[in-house]
Amino acid sequence: MEMKKRITLELRNRSPAEVAELVVDNCRSTDGEVEGLSDAFSQLEFLSMVNVGLSSLAKLPSLPRLRKLELSDNNLSGSLETLSQKCPNLTYLNLSGNKIKDLSSVEALQQLKALQSLDLFNCEITCLEDYRDSVFQLLPQVTFLDGFDQEDNEAPDSEGDDDDDGTAPAGVYDDDDDEEEDEEGSEGKDEEEDEEDYGEDEEEDAAGVQGLKRKRDVDDEGEDEDDDEDD
Question: What is the pTM assigned to this prediction?
Fold first, then answer.
């Protein structure tokens, strides 16, 4: 699918100014340029154009609110200076899997003062000696390169910060669960007490019956002895 058509579909009857996130991954740019985007996307904060055949960013429109830009698996080798002109507030830029070979190409990102995270994984530039130290020195505003900082600490996963999936953490229980367990325990205890009381009642009834039987037997024996004496 062509990029223009894909963007039209992604609008979903909205105006470009209403769109904050736009994903057009795996569509096709007919000439290696950005197509279908315009300055009308003034509120766009996240843009993903993964594997769309881009070889240039010259036609990227002005996107002043853009914070995150995904451009992995394209054919970009330069023209990155356009980013500082059109997307000055970028904090995250993914250029992994492109044809970026040397530091001079990355030098154009120095003007992106808000850039915190840069991904160049699987680009030829990563094969350079002292690649990481050189990039961090060239771009002092960058905190994370290819997902790690200068001390090899992994970048936090912003999508995983909210772990509220409705389940309580291990070892933590809801008050409702405690009440249900207390009710179940009390019910089980009551049933056991009822069974014990029932057993005691049966034993008392049996003892009473045996006592009456013994009394009748004694009385009968007494009557027999009286009859013998009369004889």
Answer: 0.68
